[in-house]
Amino acid sequence: MSFNLQELQLLRDLQLELDGVIEKLQTAHHDLETSLGKVFLFLAGKLNVVSLFVETQDENLNHRVFCFGACDDNIKRQVPQLHQINRAINFNFNGILWYAQPIEMAGKNTGSIALAFAQDKAPEKNLGSAMLDCISELLDGFFFGIHSSSLKHSLIMGVQSALKNHSIVDSIDGAVYVLKKEVPFRKLIILYSDHELTGIENINYLVYEGDQRIHDSVEMKHAGLDAFIKDHGNCLSANTEALKKVVGEENLTITYLLDGLIEENLIGKLIFVPEHGNNFSIFSREIVQVFAETLRQRLVDFNRERNALRKFFPDTVIARLIAEPGYEKIYLTPREAQIGIIFADISGFTKMSEQILKTPERITNLVDKWSNGIIHRVFPIGACLDKVVGDCLILLFGPPFYEADAATIVDKVLESARIIVDYTNEFLRLPENIDIQKHPDFEKFGVAIGTNYCPAVVGLIGPNDDLTAFSSGMNITARLQGLAKANQILATEKVRELAMASGKWSFTGPESAPVKNVEKPLVYYHVKKSEK
Q1: What is the pTM of this model?
Q2: Dist. CA 447–CA 459, nearest whole Å
Q3: Which of 39, 315, 344, 491 is the most exposed place for a label (fewest CB within 10 A)?
Q4: How far apart are CA 167 and CA 177, in angstroms?
Q5: Pairwise CA distance, residues 453 & 492, whole Å
Q6: Phi, psi at residue 519, to the nearest 5°?
Q7: Residue 134 domain-assigned?
Q8: Residue 404, SS3?
Q9: What are the backbone dihedrals phi and psi of residue 127, each rounded to the nearest 5 degrees, phi first?
Q10: Are 132 and 15 spatial neighbours (Cβ–Cβ below 8 Å)?
Q11: Cα angle vertex 156, ends 152, 162, to 5°?
Q12: Measuring CA to CA, which residue among 233, 104, 254, 136 is closest to residue 190?
């Protein structure tokens, strides 16, 4: 195909001028229809084009036909040759000369473009084809930009929708399914951390072949990843060579997930194995980055939500809660319910603080270790934490599901109380507390416990949405705890009544004590484990 100097100059001017038009359109951020309309006006003035036909995807990735000039929305019915254009063609239809060719994007036929000229002003065949080719090539980048932006937006919406699922694993499954439609990967491994309030970091993993999850850290374990996590204390920062051995692949594409802009803590890692060993294209990398950012935010929210609940509940309860949409309203809205209660306070703590511990750091450290040790032991039994007030620990039994019967709850209350007594004695005898052991009143140090089973209003209450219970029964339990001495467990009449049937517990008493602003004295019993 050869052109004379005038034709070459025309093609060169067309390329430069149309490139300038498209650049202005991109800067102005016009929609596709408006942009193509302006392109047509330019072509009509420059080349005497009477119609511009474009069949492609719009900003919403919907199939559209755009036609400008001497045509209307019925153009494909009026000009049948414009159906399914899969190669460059030219044809005469009703005295109008058309030049048409496919629009290709990333090697795929994504539509078609055609120019129409009046017969008497139509360019010679080769020149007309060259004009269309030049126009199409310049518009390809414009179309690709729109398609790319729309695809990213569609992916964001799809991934965000998938990640709204309350189950973190199910939500990631859905997001990976969306991602696989656009990114050619053969395998994907997601490592992510679950930060506990105590600072302990649990590393979880999900392994996908295509869009199907084949391994995870809970039910479908991967022996190599389990060993890798165990052997690497900070496995999220482990080098790529170590990962290659675990994955069994040489060509990995890795993306890191950070939880902040100022303090960049590593909370996850995406490990892709591209299809056929090829590296990702720029477009695929951009899509992966969009996916990574959306997943990063979901993991930040996931950790934040779990840690908010960890102030009150064990992980098994949290997993059940967050798996159910609307769990806050269903389970955590304040309600009146029958619950078990423990008030546990370190006996002699004031003397211990003033004469032995002395510094705020030492006092705080002791209370933190003691209370965390108790929570670690009683959460699995069914306790949840109301609050820690100084050296007093308040535990509730029954929330948030209120499924156990009264006798079962009371048994859990007394079992937990016994554990608290035993653990406190062990804790005070640790080598780090040798100075406490040397105090002349060491035998008077221990834990004093009051237990109760009574109605209370329970739920997330107050400006910080803390789990709280309040009732006269809470006040009675606090009074009982105040009456107890080191290593004593005191119980109300109701607790004794419900516990007697099991035969696991024995009681001495009754004893009584006056209660401020209450006419009847408080009747209570001492509790110990039955010898049977």
Answers
A1: 0.62
A2: 27
A3: 315
A4: 16
A5: 8
A6: -65, -45
A7: yes
A8: coil
A9: -70, -40
A10: no
A11: 140
A12: 254
| Per-residue 3-state assignment (H helix, E strand, C coil) for 443-496 | HHCEEEEEEEEEEEEEEEECCCCEEEEECHHHHHHHHHHHHCCCCEEEEEHHHH
Q: Please tell me whether residues 109 and 42 are part of one structural domain.
A: yes
d(CA 417, CA 488): 9
CB 3 within 8 A of CB 126: yes
Number of domains within the chain = 3
Whether 417 and 441 share a structural domain:
yes
Cα–Cα dist 520/523, whole Å: 9
CATH for 283 = 3.30.450
C-alpha to C-alpha distances, 248 to 187, 244, 245, 274, nearest whole angstrom: 11, 6, 5, 13
Q: What CATH number does the domain containing 78 carry?
A: 3.30.450.40
Residue spans of beta strands (DSSP E) within 310-359: 335-347
Q: Judge whether 458 and 399 are in contact, CB under 8 Å.
A: yes
Query: Which of 271, 293, 308 is a domain's end point?
Result: 308
Residue 394: give the domain boundaries.
Answer: 315-529
DSSP 163: T
| Peptide bond preceding 400 in cis form (omega within 30 of 0) | yes
- In 371-463, the DSSP E strands lie at 383-389, 392-397, 446-461
Which residue in the block uniquely carries the two structure tokens 């990640």? 163
Rg (CA), the chain: 36
Among all chains, which residue has been given the structure tokens 């992980």? Answer: 315
Structure tokens at 1: 């195909």
Do 347 and 465 lie in one domain? The reply is yes
pLDDT, averaged in runs of 10, over the chain (532 residues): 86 93 87 92 94 87 88 85 90 92 79 92 91 91 77 83 82 92 91 64 87 91 88 75 82 82 72 84 85 87 80 86 83 94 94 90 92 93 91 94 94 96 94 92 92 95 85 92 93 93 88 79 86 53
Quote the CA–CA distance of 103 and 394 in Å, as a whole number: 70
Residue 13 lies in a domain: yes
* Closest listed residue to residue 189, CA positions, set 247, 289, 271: 271
With 0-12 CB in 10 A as exposed, 13-18 as middle and 19+ as buried, what is 389?
A: exposed
Measure the CA–CA gap between 88 and 120, rounded to whole angstroms: 22
